[in-house]
Amino acid sequence: MTLVQIIVLAVIQGLTEFLPVSSSAHLILGGKVFGWPDQGLVFDVATHLGTLFAVLFYFRRDLVEMAQAWFGPVRSDADRQHRNMVIYLAVASLPALLVGFLAHDWVELYLRDVRIIAWTTIGFGLLLWISDAVAPKQRSIDEIRLGSALLIGIAQVLALVPGTSRSGVTITAGRFLGFTPEAAARFSFLLSIPIVGAAGAYGALSVATGDAPINWMQFMLAFLLAAVAGWVCIAAFLALLQRVGLLPFVIYRLLLGVGLLWLLN
Questions:
Q1: Nearest CA to 173 among 92, 240, 107, 83?
Q2: Angle of helix 114-134 relative to helix 247-264, nearest 10 degrees?
Q3: CA distance 170 to 158
Q4: How far is CA 263 from CA 20, 114, 238, 256, in A?
Q5: What's the pLDDT score for residue 179?
Q6: Longest alpha-carbon distance in the chain
Q7: Where would a tag sit more exposed on the chain, N or C end, judged by fewer CB atoms within 10 A?
Q8: Quick one: DSSP state of residue 215?
Q9: Per DSSP, what are the bridge partners of residue 139?
Q10: How many alpha carbons lie under 13 Å from residue 138 in its C-beta half-sphere?
Q11: What is the 3 state secondary structure string of 87-154?
Q12: Cα separations (Å) of 205 from 1, 97, 179, 208, 209?
């Protein structure tokens, strides 16, 4: 990979991992526009680990509070909420982890088609718009319960289809359940930790047991760029939600999907 390719694709992956747009659509679009070959498994592992670091760093205080509440005595309602959040995130992660483990090869073989990615980018963009337009904006993240967490986790399974967007579909589910855009986004980002971590671990295992050579300079550069881009994306997105809402991302998804369909002609 060239230096330009590493920089562009690592930043794209870092940004689109957390925005309600499709990372796979952007990587395909970038490859088509610049004529780049597939970036390979080693690059994917580096960027997954980078985005994992970004979300862990951004939510470090929340994670420390969850750990303290989980391993220590419950002294307040806040401690109880933090302990419950650990359970909610674990339960919400199970559907995608299970289906992903069973169907990963099938998805890679049959669903990584540009036309499928284009239409899912458009279709789930419209669903995001509907959820944001019709759902009430009342429930905070502190009001999440086991049933809501499980429903969001089930919706996350759809993100196995390329073009859907993991953050997009979980935010959509959260909005349909009545959570504010910020609450839906924060739970979506926290929920990314076990999913991105599992994807990174699976990729790292495949690299370790395979014959793919590792250029450690390129690996570390991709990791750092994805981590910085991911952290900036989380901070900017949560700040922008209060000002512009989700509609600009809906419009962007529609334009992106149309752009992919145009490339097929």
A1: 92
A2: 160
A3: 9
A4: 22, 9, 32, 11
A5: 94
A6: 62
A7: C
A8: -
A9: 179
A10: 5
A11: HHHHHHHHHHHHHHHHHHHHHHHHCCCHHHHHHHHHHHHHHHHHHHHHCCCCECHHHCCHHHHHHHHH
A12: 22, 16, 37, 5, 6
Residue range 97-118: mean pLDDT, rounded: 84
Q: Which one-letter DSSP state was computed for residue 178?
A: T
Q: What is the pTM of this model?
A: 0.91
Q: Which residues pair with 179 in a beta bridge?
A: 139
- The answer to whether 236 touches 20, Cβ cutoff 8 Å, is no
Please indicate whether residue 201 or residue 234 has the higher confidence score (pLDDT).
234
* Cα–Cα distances in angstroms (integers) from residue 64 to residues 25, 67, 259, in the given order: 34, 5, 42
CA distance 185 to 77: 23
Model pLDDT for residues 27-43, shown as the tens digit of each residue: 777 776 777 776 777 88
Q: Distances from the Cα of 119 to the Cαs of 82, 115, 149, 259, in angstroms?
A: 38, 6, 27, 11
Backbone dihedral angles phi then psi of residue 17, each to the nearest 5 degrees:
-65, -30
